[in-house]
Amino acid sequence: MRIFLTGATGFIGSALVPELIGAGHEVIGMTRSDEGARALEAAGAKVYRGTLEDPESLRKGALEADGVIHTAFDHDFSRFAENCQKDARAIAALGAALAGSDRPLIITSGTGMGNTEFGELGSEDVFNTSHPNPRVASELAGQTLLDEGINLSVVRLPQVHDTFKQGLITPLIEITRQKGLAAYVGEGRNRWPAGHLSDVARLYRLAIERAESGARYNAVAEEGVEAREIAEAIGRGLKLPVRSISREEAAAHFGWLSIFTTIDFPASSAKTQAVLGWRPTGPSLISDLNAMQY
């Protein structure tokens, strides 16, 4: 399959390019920079110049492909809600290029969209359209395309990790470094799901090969890792004290990240594993945090 991949030089995209090529697919990798172009060429992908800010470049890239995987996202969390709307526009542009065909489009969301209530185990069968996380805009845009007959499916991400990055935990580490304290809220029993980068890349490949319209997949290896356990691992790595703080202190301590540090949003991948035959085999989140070079 000839696959147009947005975010091809990003954290997930960089792992997905060799995963796809190794399985016999051709990759058209989108990048905005010369450095990214060189990395894609070295990996064996075809270079395509485009940006999230230019929907027409996305549409034209998708026209060249048999299928599309959309992993690009603007991770400036100071403008998170705005960037989620930008993602929705990108999804619409990609879908427009695939109209009238059965060519698959895989978009990216978060596992939280499968939580009807915080604390419940999120599942693939649930899409909480009123979820307070602005990232819901991505799946709402996807649902519009599904209603228009586009062959679209969704990969929902947990905290994707290796020994260099760990999703939202990466900025959490920087906050901890700045504050001189590895903190968690209350008892720290709230949970974050996690999945290793190599397993997540394999899941995207399996999803586009299956090309099942309307499917939702949770890229979850660990259903929920407790916040206290995460804080303790970071504290060990940075050699900083670890302690609980109150909910009232959370906003001042964590800043924009505070909304994520106080909620419990575990997620299951039982259906994903059953449907795709996907079995996570990578290291655990805590193992990667313990193995980091802080």
Write the layout of secondary structure elements.
Elements: E1 2-6, H1 11-22, E2 26-31, H2 34-43, E3 46-49, H3 55-63, E4 67-70, H4 80-98, E5 105-110, H5 136-147, E6 152-157, E7 159-161, H6 169-179, E8 182-185, E9 191-196, H7 197-210, E10 216-218, E11 222-226, H8 227-238, E12 242-245, H9 247-254, H10 258-261, H11 270-276, H12 285-291
Task: Describe the fold and architecture.
There is one protein chain. It is built from twelve helices and twelve strands. It is an alpha/beta fold and 294 residues long. The chain has a seven-stranded parallel β-sheet with strand order 3-2-1-4-5-6-10, with helices on both faces. A three-stranded mixed β-sheet has the order 7-9-11. Helix 3 runs parallel beside helix 4 (80-98), helix 4 runs parallel beside helix 5 (136-147) and helix 8 (227-238) packs parallel to helix 12 (285-291).
Q: Residue-averaged pLDDT, rounded? A: 96
Order of the strands making up the biggest sheet: 3-2-1-4-5-6-10
Count of DSSP strands: 12
The helix/strand series, from N terminus to C terminus, equals: EHEHEHEHEHEEHEEHEEHEHHHH
The main sheet comes to: 7 strands, parallel
